[in-house]
Amino acid sequence: MLKSLHIDPAKCTGCLQCEMACSYEHHGVFNPSKSRIKVFNFEAEGKKVPYTCTQCAEAWCMNACPVDAIRLDAATGAKVVHEDICVGCKVCTIACPFGTINYEQDSGKVQKCDLCDDNPACAAACPTSAITYIDADWTGLDKMRQWAAKANTATPAT
Amino acid sequence: MGWARKILRVNLTQGTCTPEPLNMQWADEYLGSRGLASKYLISEIDPKVDPLSPDNKMIMSTGPLTGTMASTGGRYTIVTKGPLTGAIACSNSGGFFGAEMKFAGWDMIIFEGKSPKPVYLYVENDRAELRDASGLWGKSCWETEETIKKQHQDPQIRVSSIGRAGENQVLYACVVNDLHRAAGRSGVGAVMGSKNLKAVALRGTKGVGGIKDFKGFMAATTAAKKVLADNAVTGEGLPKYGTQVLMNVINEMGSLPTRNHKDVQFEDAAKISAEAMHEKRASDGKSQLVTNAACFGCTIACGRISEIDKGHFTVVNKPEYWGASGGLEYEAAWALGAANGVGDIEALQYANLLCNEQGMDPISFGATVGAVMELYEMGVLTNEQIGVDAPFGSAEALARFTEMTALGEGFGVEIGQGSKRLCEKYGHPELSMTVKGQEFPAYDARGIQGMGLTYATSNRGACHLRSYTVASEVLGIPVKTDPLVTEGKPELVKAFQDATAIFDSAGICVFTSFAWTLADVQPQLQAACDGDWSMEKLNLVGERIWNMERQFNTAAGFTRKDDDLPPRLKTEPAQTGPAKGLVSGIDKMIPEYYQIRGWTPDGVVTEETAGRLGL
């Protein structure tokens, strides 16, 4: 059973623990500028939104890569950048409609979310469960439950 | 190692930016942030220096936990000699600026001298340069941040700046970062203004590495986060209600200073409380509160993001204030509200927005307005002199005074000097609710006796954050003590003062101490930092920092008589509530406190104590 990162912006406080966890997992430093998940702060609306790769089934980044450096990890469904193959041409960054694959100048390669080998550090670090790692087929379950709870179950008078 | 091991020295007179290695022996003795920056300041300036002269220095400093995954590890401190008090000033701020300084590879930035023209400092990792800020001078903190990001075409820059209040050297001007977080007290923004330094803009991509024991650090920080999450205050009360959770509590305790401390309970407290921020307004059906928000790395998220009522008289034709923004926090709601008898929460948010926008401490500003309103009611100040009718409770006067003070107009210039200078000028020094020239925060010293001693002995003038005995006397953290008695308070205050110096110097937020004791901080520091960071050492370092600050103040000219409260709190008993009939027992507590501290009966650090602490 595949899992997905699921994001609920309403729960996000903007603390950036996810960005630090991501950079620590992949680079061994606390460094939001190297994070593969970003939290956007829309000041005037009071809204904070974490955003990262959703691992498209038909991944445009993967299809665009001229050297076949982005490959499917069948166990997790993650589209993973193989750094030893990547030549840093950045074509994938143009192909991705969401901007979630980016160049990293220190390594000269691109980087994107790889689901941390089925144990995403961002979800583990999130203090408010704004980021969770759940059944890929049922990311809507919580929302359904909330609406279900509002259903009127009173039996009409006969 | 925790520290970046590198500091930036900016000489504004000469226009130079020079890197230096961090003094690692001092880091071992004073930890970081508040303690370490104070050590640098005290070693480099004459304690008698005029705070607004080029000879004063201003230091922005992070701690070893700043920029790490330690919860709340995003704090930075500004240390300088304060113009409001003449004492050491040390103002701490959250937001994201502190962590960015660390990510750029710097532990602290020391500013010295005075620039011949307005400048801002731009730092991009190792590169640091002063840039022309003549186009920014006159702009608000909000406009300054937006303009700098646009000019550099980089939305990820973090900015600390002064607004009009700092430029005009309002004596309680603050330095605002990330739009609504501030190094708020003691006028650090006025010092920045005196140096013609408009802003500091940072971009760091190096990150924080080199943690001594990464695995141990992750285990320690994860365990400590669980303590915060499981605690009723940090896990439930603060995220839901913010610091404003205190408004009704402190009012019921009879410790909510009202109308310049004439009263200790405010009849409209409920109208300006956290609960009121959650209620739907009759006017537009929305609540003032939009959401809570976290500073960098914070797993508490006490910050308030609110939307003002667009139809309120203060903003009806001012759409620039209609968006979501910071506030109200408890201290601001109290100082702008109860201290002036104003129960209109929308007016308080308007005043609060202006304080954020132009960089002004709402505590000292609000408390000064309280003194002005009392002088007005006594007939000492008149409408002709001050430009408005200003009885207690007037939301119109509050709004007008905020605009005048923030922009340096009319009588606002005098309000900008703080209540001590203002009350002295108009012949009533006794009406200034201050210690060492700094206005009281939101706890009355008659109803919470420990706070009287906290205020009287705080090294930066009246302040609740130097030893927050409210935690013990009101909330029972870590043990419940009776707020109405003086017995035991000197020891309690000393213990809080020394421990708080460690929280402040580590780079974390003091609000963690609702749930954490030093024993929760110790394993995080031990794993992050080189050297020994045992409990024994932390206790010693905390006490050392406190005594070092005290020695500076003594050298600056402060004496026993400056560790005192205004006569009102010593002679006019509380009229209502649990503390009815009580005055502050400060005179009883001071001698015992000095003795416990190992100071002379005149409040001077003895040679023996200094020697024991390695000073």
Automatic annotation (TrEMBL), chain A:
GO MF entry, a single one: metal ion binding
Domain 4Fe-4S ferredoxin-type, residue spans: 3-32, 44-75, 77-106
Matches recorded under InterPro entries: 4Fe4S_Fe-S-bd, 4Fe4S_Fe_S_CS, RnfB_subfamily
Keyword Cytoplasm: no
PROSITE patterns assigned to the protein according to its UniProt record, in alphabetical order: 4FE4S_FER_1, 4FE4S_FER_2
Pfam families the record matches: Fer4_11 (PF13247), Fer4_6 (PF12837)
Signal sequence region: none
SUPFAM superfamilies: 4Fe-4S ferredoxins (SSF54862)
Membrane-spanning intervals of the chain: none
Keyword Transmembrane: no
Alphabetic keyword roster: 4Fe-4S, Electron transport, Iron, Iron-sulfur, Metal-binding, Transport
The protein's name in its UniProt record: 4Fe-4S dicluster domain-containing protein
Automatic annotation (TrEMBL), chain B:
Entries under InterPro entries matching the protein: Ald_Fedxn_OxRdtase_dom2, Ald_Fedxn_OxRdtase_dom3, Ald_Fedxn_OxRdtase_N, Ald_Fedxn_OxRdtase_N_sf, OxRdtase_Ald_Fedxn_C, Tungsten_al_ferr_oxy-like_C, W-dependent_AOR
Domain of life of the organism encoding this protein: Bacteria
Keyword terms of this UniProt record: 4Fe-4S, Iron, Iron-sulfur, Metal-binding, Oxidoreductase
Cofactor: tungstopterin; [4Fe-4S] cluster
Residue ranges with Basic and acidic residues bias: 559-571
Ranges of residues in domain Aldehyde ferredoxin oxidoreductase N-terminal: 3-206
Region of interest: Disordered: 559-581
Keyword Phosphoprotein: no
GO molecular function, one term: 4 iron, 4 sulfur cluster binding
Similarity field: Belongs to the AOR/FOR family.
The protein's name: Aldehyde ferredoxin oxidoreductase family protein
Source species taxonomy: Bacteria, Pseudomonadati, Pseudomonadota, Betaproteobacteria, Rhodocyclales
